Amino acid sequence: MGIFQRLFGKASKAEPISTEEPDSIESSTDSDWEQLPAFIPAAPQDVERVSVIATAIAAGDRPNSKFLVKRVLQRNPEVKTISIIAASIAAGTKTDSQLSIKNIYKKKN
Question: Region annotation Disordered: residue ranges (predicted)?
């Protein structure tokens, strides 16, 4: 069994599809706010390094195979900073809680 199969080969569970209609807040969010992407394209100098490392790890199990890296993304530093600050402030009241930031929006100019 390959390393990627062990890391990412989890059994998927089907989630029920909700039939609820979106709130009116959702429509007003689209006009005044823009969602910040969680990941942005990586710097060109980092793409080659990441591709070589990922290909070497994946080829460990199958040396005669061919790999193609389509795109390399990195965490958006702005989103990362905002997530840390927001989770830290929210965790100030409940220290043993776990928080997950789903979306971050930025006011349009």
Answer: 1-31
SS3 106: strand
Is residue 105 a contact partner of residue 33, using CB atoms and an 8 Å limit?
Answer: yes
CA–CA separation, 104 and 20 (whole Å): 22
Give per-residue burial for 39-58: e unless 16+ CB within 10 Å, then b.
eeebeeeeeeeebeeeeeee
